[in-house]
Automatic annotation (TrEMBL):
The keyword 4Fe-4S does not apply. PROSITE patterns: GNAT. Residues 8-173 form the N-acetyltransferase domain. Transmembrane segments: none annotated. PANTHER family: ACETYLTRANSFERASE. Keywords: Acyltransferase, Transferase. This is Putative acetyltransferase. GO terms for molecular function: acyltransferase activity, transferring groups other than amino-acyl groups. The keyword Acyltransferase applies.
Length: 173
């Protein structure tokens, strides 16, 4: 789909790759990969993987709309806005433009689909990620911080809850 100068290709995840993606990205949480692929399978978005040759280097989940958090939907009409989540670049590939390449591809696809904006939530203490998004033209929405929480199941089947204080950032496409 997108060819990056550092030989990074952005491709939509395939079902046959999921076990491999688990080993490369989330060996302790296989469901992360499967759940993201499920979003794509249901037609609700695309699970975008950055490949360096045959090595997966990073990922983002692009949803056609979101987020569903009431703290955001009270102020923002998410219907025409795509949404980025689950951003990650493996340590050895960081600061090489991997996340930038995925986000730019996500923006291109979103625009092609008719989305007017693209948004994301970022932890208020996640300095690296905030810097990345600001560099790419994302702006804080100006409505303040809020707490999100999500449930996860680990490889032993234990269910846990994580929480994070985040802000919403967006960009006009
Ligand atoms: C945030 C993250 C996805 C960035 O991925 P990446 O592939 O290294 O990002 P890029 O190489 O495209 O970085 C582009 C720009 O973002 C900013 N940036 C990225 N990492 C940074 C860091 N560690 N410190 C400061 N700025 C950083 C810089 O402006 C950088 O440009 P530069 O390298 O020319 O200075 C990666 O650090 C990561 O996986 N972090 C852990 C998970 C996470 O926080 N995900 C985001 C959740 S919202």
């Amino acid at each position: 789909m997108y060819k990056h100068a550092l030989s990074i290709d952005i491709k939509v995840a395939e079902e046959s790759q999921l076990d491999f993606l688990v080993t490369q990205f989330s060996p302790d949480n296989p469901l992360f990969q499967y759940n993201r692929y499920e979003v794509q399978k249901k037609g609700e978005g695309l699970y975008l993987i950055a490949w360096h040759s045959k090595t997966p280097a990073g990922h983002f989940l692009l949803r056609w709309s979101g987020p569903k958090d009431a703290a955001v939907t009270r102020f923002v009409d998410i219907a025409s806005r795509s949404y980025l989540e689950a951003g990650h670049t493996n340590e050895e590939f960081r600061r090489k433009g991997v996340a930038t390449a995925i986000i730019q591809e996500a923006e291109r696809i979103s625009k092609e689909r008719g989305c007017t904006h693209i948004g994301l939530e970022v932890g208020i203490e996640n300095r690296e990620a905030k810097q990345l998004y600001e560099k790419l033209g994302y702006q804080d929405w100006g409505q303040g911080e809020f707490t999100i929480s999500w449930e996860y199941t680990d490889k032993n089947g234990n269910i846990g809850i994580e929480t994070e204080i985040v802000t919403y950032m967006q960009k006009m496409l």
